[in-house]
Amino acid sequence: MRIYLQKPSEGNLPHRYCHLWTQEDLLHGWTLIAEAGYQGSRGRVKKQQYPDRESVEHALIAARDGHLRRGYRVMIVEGQSPSEKS
To answer: How many other CB atoms are found less than 10 A from the CB of residue 64?
Structure first.
């Protein structure tokens, strides 16, 4: 799953962005990758390991919700979690 968020600019600064995505590793664990920074510049990347898909998806949604509370808006969502599929 992949979520791209953006926060409107403040003054002369460019928009801020946050790109969150999950990735399965070779040992069947999962990684949450978060890249954040100013639009047009290299962002800071943080990685967190999780033992299973369910826990990484909960962490992804929690990270998304935290950014929404700080004024970010969801711009792009790719993929669905198994709980969202009908």
So the answer is: 18
Give the residue from 59, 61, 36, 56 showing the smallest Cα distance to 46.
36
Note the pTM of the prediction, 2 decimals.
0.86
Do residues 23 and 47 lie in contact, with contact meaning Cβ atoms separated by under 8 Å? Answer: no
Domains of the chain (ranges, CATH numbers): 2-84 (2.20.140.10)
Phi and psi at 56, nearest 5°, equal -70, -35
Residue labelled with tokens 């969150």: 20
pLDDT in tens, 18-52: 999 999 999 889 999 999 999 988 899 999 999 99
Strand order in the sheet with 44-50: 44-50, 30-38, 16-24, 2-7, 73-78
Q: Is 29 exposed, middle or buried (0-12, 13-18, 19+ CB in 10 A)?
A: middle
Count the residues in the chain. Answer: 86
